[in-house]
Design brief:
With about 525 residues, the chain is of the alpha+beta class. It has two domains: about 35-80 and about 115-265, no CATH class; about 280-530, Spore Coat Polysaccharide Biosynthesis Protein SpsA, Chain A (Alpha-Beta Complex). The chain is built from 14 helices and 28 strands. The protein is elongated.
């Protein structure tokens, strides 16, 4: 009995210790928490007023009372990364009760950088360029006025997932009456008020439906300036359609819900003496044409001795390609054209990449600086050049793409030679949808579109079809690369050249079927027309 009691006593002590540990670990003082209370009332007032749209009627003379538990969720245009403090370490505590860890990237990175002010300026410049490219006119706040008693924002209202905002621009333009009332209804979030106004009855705090009424129109409109919307159903990118009604009138507006676009900025530094090697990487794919590849590399080194060249190689018996600033990646034999493009592009770390075929030759007319200049100064994502054949004929291969709705059977795609319009300030450049197989693009945009690895022996148009709607493309005729001669007498062809011709241009029903499947199934086209 004594042994059993001792065991029970020991078990009781261990259980008590575990209960105390659990209570301590899960107590509110140690859990990740959100401080709903402002540091000072004046600060919260500033936050609220920054979120209020004052474009129609200010109503500054009407007092209000802040609801701190709601207003505390409003964004303050600042953020901090805070680590959880662990005051009582226990074995395996990180596994049982994981805590937030944080570090300041700015201080850690800038502290070790030789010129922190210069890198901060470059980062700000790159972010400004990113904003110019990514901001859409559909994001601009527009408030409808006048056509009905209801004034509301027709576009430009956005909230981060599970966050809270003040809805701007809500106004009731009503005739004198004994009572004024409006209703708000949402489907992906709830309404509340960041402050209350005397004389206004509010029903539905924290609900998807809210009603407001008052005998004084000015008081009601003042209260509408404090309406908040909180997203309650997580989705990384969607929208809530809000219904805004009053007696005899109904309107709708949308609130965009989504995470912000995270920028990808390239710390390329400043070009030294016009050298763009820190901005551009040249990428190519080679197969059975090492002699052409060596000629290409030699011509590149004549004009760009320090520019990185990335080579994707799917030869059966690969040869090592050596030299400074050269990266060669070996693939399975015959893996294919677009698979090689994917591999080469995936290894680029510079802001821009230049695609070239392995049988191109750089000349004095291959001025990559011009391509960089237009990409830096415009919203274009990709710009093509021109290819000069041995006969002297130069082509830019410009096309436009148009997709027409086709119903249940699929859509129709029309590909026409030509371009959309010229680019102001660049007389030799135009906007198109398809360009030549010699182009420079923003690395992250090309990577986003990618290349279908099923396209093994041929493919070019497919990439631009996949990029339609996401790539802004230009073509400049004054940046020219030469094409190695394809004119060969049969008895002068090397064994590798004969093998390449047979592999590259042999008719294959399987290859044709894959291309048809890509257009029909993957892209959902029922027909294609091109000139």
């Amino acid at each position: 009995m004594r042994v059993s009691c001792r065991k029970c006593l020991g078990l009781l002590v261990i259980s008590s210790f575990l209960l105390i540990t659990l209570f301590y670990s899960w107590s509110p003082s140690n859990c990740l928490k959100v401080d709903l209370k402002p540091k000072s009332k004046s600060e919260m007032e500033i936050v609220i007023m920054e979120n209020i749209w004052d474009g129609f009627n200010n109503h500054h003379d009407i007092s209000y009372h802040i609801k701190e538990d709601v207003a505390g969720h409003l964004a303050r245009n600042t953020c901090m990364c805070m680590s959880d403090n662990q005051t009582f370490p226990l074995p395996f505590s990180n596994l049982l009760f994981p805590r937030v860890k944080a570090h300041n990237l700015d201080s850690r990175y800038l502290k070790s950088h030789p010129n922190p002010e210069a890198v901060k300026r470059l980062r700000a410049h790159e972010y400004h360029r990113f904003q110019l490219r990514s901001i859409s006119p559909a994001d601009v706040l527009i408030v409808n006025k006048g056509n009905s008693p209801l004034q509301f924002p027709s576009q430009g209202v956005a909230v981060r997932p599970l966050n809270t905002i003040i809805i701007p621009g809500l106004v009731l333009l009503d005739k004198p009456t004994s009572n004024h009332a409006v209703n708000l209804t949402a489907t992906l979030g709830t309404f509340n008020v960041a402050a209350t106004v005397d004389g206004v009855l509010v029903k539905g705090d924290g609900k998807m439906h809210m009603s407001l009424s008052s005998a004084v129109l000015a008081a009601l409109n003042r209260q509408l300036q404090f309406i908040t919307y909180t997203n309650t159903i997580f989705h990384p990118r969607t929208a809530d359609t809000v219904q805004f009604t009053t007696s005899g009138h109904r309107s709708f507006f949308t609130i965009k819900i989504g995470h912000p676009d995270i920028p990808r900025l390239y710390n390329s530094g400043s070009p030294k003496d016009g050298d763009i090697s820190n901005l551009v990487t040249i990428v190519t794919k080679t197969f059975l044409r090492y002699d052409h590849l060596k000629n290409l590399i030699g011509s590149i080194r004549k004009y760009y001795p320090s520019m990185t060249i990335v080579i994707a190689d799917d030869n059966e018996h690969p040869q090592q390609v050596t030299g400074p600033h050269i990266e060669q990646y070996i693939m399975p034999f015959g893996k294919g054209w677009f698979a090689g493009r994917n591999l080469a592009v995936s290894q680029v770390t510079t802001k821009y990449l230049l695609w070239v075929d392995d049988d191109f030759i750089f000349t004095a007319d291959t001025k990559l600086e011009k391509m960089v200049d237009i990409l830096e100064r415009t919203s274009l994502d990709l710009v093509g050049g021109a290819v000069r054949e041995v006969t002297g004929w130069t082509t830019t291969f410009r096309h436009t793409i148009s997709v027409k709705e086709g119903g249940e059977d699929g859509d129709c795609i029309l590909i026409m030679s030509g371009y959309h319009h010229a680019i102001e300030g660049f007389p030799t450049c135009v906007v198109a949808d398809v360009v030549i197989n010699f182009f420079m693009g923003r690395t992250e945009k090309v990577q986003q579109v990618g290349f279908n690895p099923r396209l093994a022996r041929r493919g070019h148009l497919e990439f631009f079809i996949d990029g339609l709607g996401s790539l802004h493309i230009g073509s400049c005729s004054d940046v020219v690369v030469n094409h190695a001669s394809k004119i060969k007498l049969p008895w002068t062809k090397k064994t590798s050249e004969k093998a390449y011709q047979e592999f590259r241009y042999s008719k294959s029903d399987v290859e044709d079927h894959i291309h048809d499947e890509v257009f029909y199934f993957t892209n959902r086209f029922k027909c294609m027309a091109r000139n």
